[in-house]
Write the structure tokens for this entry.
Amino acid sequence: MSAIQVLDKTALQPVTRRIRWRRGVFLALDYGLMIGLALFFIFPVVVMVNASFKPEQYVQADMHTLYAFAPRQITLQNYTCPNYQNKANWCTMPGIFELVPFGHILFNSLFVATCGVLAGLLVNSLAAYALARLRWRGRTLALSVIIALIIIPFETLAIPLLLLVNSLPWIDGRTTWIDSYHVQIIPFVADAFSIFLFYQFFIGIPKDFDDAAKVDGANQWMIYWRIIVPLSRPIFATVAILQFLGFWGGFLWPLMVTRGAEFRPLTIAMGVLFTTNPRQWGDIMAYASLVTVPVLIVFLIFQKWFIQSVASSGIKG
């Protein structure tokens, strides 16, 4: 190594150290900001779940202290108290599981959300595939109508849709769809926003894949199932999350079409319970935790799959 090269390397060392120091500072600020935002958004959930395991006298008393984030005394009395009528028991009030048939209501929400998401993924992705990959007369007009439907609020369609489903027959001989599972699923399987999301992703996939598949004798269904679907896992995960949140947290439509506990989802059962039978804050936190935690679990599962799919797909559209 020559003397000039040694001098150049020595002169660049302070500059390199400054660059590394700046990168370290910016990286620390970046991580600090992300951690702060994560804590800001997650602390209400932590407070809610923590309060659900506290005796009633500590729920509000701990809200202004650090015990709001940490349990002071753990109890299950807000969730269950099978022998609450026994004065010598560890709790004297019925829990959530004694007040409502929670297992059946949870099944209602899971069944509606699962069926709605699976049917929605198939229907909306096929509709988007026809708009993005096929050429047919009226395609532009159909896409324009779908985009226009995104801005129409559901409240303007609720009453006409209710009158429609009230007069539709079903395969079991019923003359109405009211108070059933399918009335909570079928009207929302086709979703304009989901179709648009699929469409935007599908048009970014090179059509060379389609041409190569057609050379090998593949039809449109084979192209969709064997090429488009594997390459589109990120958007499938995204739409699944959005539709699951819509079905799980729906309130207005289930309130309009369910009349009893047989088909009632969690959100409606919660409103009915605390309206007809005013409860304490511990019970409210327990029920809210049971409604919220499954959503977080589903989101975390799909989020991991989404990140892995983006990294492995190799498609940038």
In short: The chain has 14 helices and no strands. Residues 312-317 have pLDDT under 50 and may be disordered.
